Amino acid sequence: MAAEAARQAVLGPPYRTALKPYGRALVALARARPQVVCLSGDLTRQCEVDLFQEEFPERFIHAGMAEANMIGVAGALARQGLLPFVHSFGVFTTRRPLDQIVNAVAYPRLPVRIVGFMPGVSSPGGPSHQAIEDVALMRAIPGMTVIDVADATETAQVVAAMADVPGPVYLRLKRGEIPVIFPTDHRLSLDRAQVLEWRPEATGGGAPTTGGAGSAGGGATGGGAQTLGGAVTRGGAQTSGLADTGGGGVSAGAGVSRGGAGIRGEAWTSVASCDVTLLVSGMMIAPALAAARVLRAAGVATVIVSIPVIKPLDTATVLSVARSAKAVVTAENHSVIGGLGSAVAETLAEAGLGRPLRRVGLTDTFAEGARDAQYLFTKYGLSTQHIVEGAWQVLHRPGPAPRAPALPADAGEYAPV
Q1: Inter-CA distances, 404 with 61, 181, 292, 338, Å
Q2: For residue 138, what are the contacts with CB-CB under 8 A and spacing of at least 6?
Q3: pLDDT in tens, 114-141
Q4: Which of 225, 230, 249, 415 has the fewest CB atoms in 10 Å of its CB?
């Protein structure tokens, strides 16, 4: 693989979890940037912006269950020099107000940040609440940046990183207990996809950041390290009941709960060539890491690439890692139509790079409602086992694919499906 590919260490499962990393990061950004305003579509607590409402009530707008109007208001605020952040579940910030996004925000290239929680089938609420086509819709809009981060560490950094991205931005986020997959020295990039590595030294995520000098984005490198006026020290303390007991911390003040030491005594590094490259985004990072361990144990050389920015896609890294592999597998918590898998397929085809490709995701179907999101991930083809089987089949390996073991997790921990 080309030497220029960016690389990042990861921790091992089960992962510690953080509560409200997005909400804390938005408050930190608002302290540094008085032009930040927050809009909520009747899901204030569920989208973590109750923290913003408490601290900046005069900069908070409760738009109610009127998402189309909320987008129009955000566009008007942006025209006045403000930086609006709009919040609801992903299906309600994309599908429902699509016309307003196009005409009131994207066409005039206004800096509105649209944040959609509960992506894909992470919601048990069925088709009315499952944003399985939000990436496809937003990718199709000219000038729209589309971001799908992996964990609490990246969530804490992405808010500041995307603040000065030109034009509109769509950010999709898991809600609830957010896994901590990356150590505290991880740096999210909005320019480069990153090859992920297990390293023996990645043992717990680094020093806690309670009360420490967060940088309102953790030194994200989307076009340069952004500190937004310097270290932000207010609000960094963890809230009661969220003390860090796992030896690690999430930047920008996210409270980290227990568990999840990193891999010890085992180094897994990318190689000059490999059997299969896994190109993944968002919530599929954790199952892709688990799948890669299963494949590696079965003798399949595997490289994982995290792609937090689906548009504009880092085509240079995609082509670099694809050239070094016999086959490519994409994995996304989204329909295989129009999302990451489509973006990768388009890139490979336009470059004339012939590689077998398998896309793991929802296959042209709506998902049912269920009490258990893990059940939905398994039923609709988004589990660790489905990634293993996709890689096995695309490589035409004989016999059945190896089985991915279930990874237990205690309360406050997260393990991939």
Answers
A1: 46, 19, 10, 28
A2: 94, 114, 144, 146, 170, 311
A3: 999 999 999 889 999 999 999 999 999 9
A4: 230
